[in-house]
Write a structure and sequence with these properties.
By secondary structure, this protein is α+β, with helices and mostly antiparallel strands. It is built from nine helices and 15 strands. The structure holds 6-O-phosphono-alpha-D-fructofuranose. 6-O-phosphono-alpha-D-fructofuranose binds next to loops.
């Protein structure tokens, strides 16, 4: 009978491969897995306990907060605020960085997370997800500071997501491959179901919101035509899939191959950077997909090399099969000079903006 490997066992085995590991990161990953189980239980029951619908508040993004958003945020915070493993947290649902309460000790790690990505899907029983990344503290003193969160994705220590769908899956990497675990609700354990995930070499899908196509720069529109093989009678087009939930769409690309993208456009020249957030959405997924042999770009270069300048910074996002993402970069360089110039001006922070605005 094949060995059943729980996520706890897998984390411990990985830790044992690193003699200097103190176990703090392992226990932090357990804490996240436990929070995921609690959130999974609520997302499964959401239709029954009237937890759906708006919490009557709007978050820092100006988006109406769904009750599940608030529940997921609070669950992750409460599972991590007292452990002494973190010096700081940051969440999509919270305007500022979140310090560790004074009554608790501080640790050497930083946790950034989107507690419930795709929350607009909650009312239609669609997939939603939690995204997380862990950084080391780089500033002096016990309490974390904004600079601890404004680190490039290349310095991520561990990252992953939990997708709450027909089954609940936790996919994570500590920089040694990507591993997927499926929750067995009967025992309340995440069991290894997808060891050493590698993005398939043969692209199967492209994933984007084509309702925005008329706003996209010419190079992005050209990329879609190329994916559809409109100008090549020999090459076969690849199919389109789009759920409106970032992690569900990227998860499909990770397992079946292809590319997801949410580009920027010039509808508002002051906001040429699209919708998705760098620190707790794009960078964690870029880290994970790179570990699986893929690549993620903001249209100009690797997402992992971007040093964030603000907490809720948004970037254009292309992720998946490296050859497809690099093809998008080439079309953008070739056709989108005006957008490239406009986005480049804000990519590293508005000129003259305070270094840590
Ligand atoms: P659109 C969900 O609200 C989200 O932040 C991501 O999960 C998703 O990829 C994107 O927005 C969908 O945006 O404009 O296509 O509805």
């Amino acid at each position: 009978m094949e060995r059943i490997l729980t996520i706890e066992r897998h984390i411990l085995d990985t830790q044992r491969e690193h003699p200097l590991a103190t176990g703090v990161l392992s226990r932090l990953l357990y804490d996240i897995a436990l929070a995921a189980k609690i959130i999974a239980r609520e997302t499964t029951r959401a239709g029954l306990v009237n937890i759906l619908g708006s919490a009557g508040q709007t978050n820092v993004q100006g988006e109406e907060q769904q009750k599940l958003d608030v529940f997921a945020h609070r669950t992750i915070f409460r599972m991590n605020d007292h452990t002494g493993r973190l010096c700081l947290m940051a969440s999509e649902e919270h305007e500022d960085i979140i310090p560790i309460p004074d009554k608790y000790p501080c640790g050497k790690y930083v946790l950034v997370f989107d507690p419930l990505d795709g929350s607009s899907n909650t009312d239609v029983n669609g997939n939603v997800a939690t995204i997380f990344a862990i950084h080391r503290k780089i500033t002096p003193g016990d309490q974390g500071q904004l600079d601890d969160v404004l680190q490039p994705g290349r310095d991520i220590v561990a990252a992953g997501y939990v997708v709450y769908g027909p089954s609940t899956m936790l996919v994570y990497s500590t920089g040694h491959g990507v591993h997927g675990f499926t929750l067995d609700p009967s025992v309340g354990e995440f069991l290894l179901s997808h060891p050493d995930i590698r993005i398939p070499a043969k692209p199967k899908y492209y994933s984007c919101n084509q309702g925005n196509e008329r706003y996209w720069p010419a190079g992005v529109r050209r990329f879609v035509e190329w994916l559809q093989a409109k100008d090549d009678p020999v090459r076969k087009p690849i199919d389109a899939r789009y759920s409106g939930a970032l992690v569900a769409d990227v998860h499909r690309i990770l397992l079946q191959g292809g590319v997801f993208f949410y580009p920027g456009d010039l509808r508002d020249p002051a906001k040429p950077y699209g919708k998705l957030r760098l620190i707790y959405e794009c960078a964690p997924l870029a880290f994970l997909v790179a570990q699986a042999g893929g690549y993620a770009s903001d249209g100009l270069g690797s997402v992992l090399d971007l040093a964030p300048h603000t907490l809720h910074q948004r970037i254009p996002f292309f992720i998946g099969d490296r050859t497809l993402v690099e093809q998008a970069e080439r079309f953008i360089q070739e056709h989108d000079g005006e957008w490239v110039q406009t986005y480049s001006a804000v990519r590293h922070g508005a000129p003259g903006a305070a270094a840590r605005a």
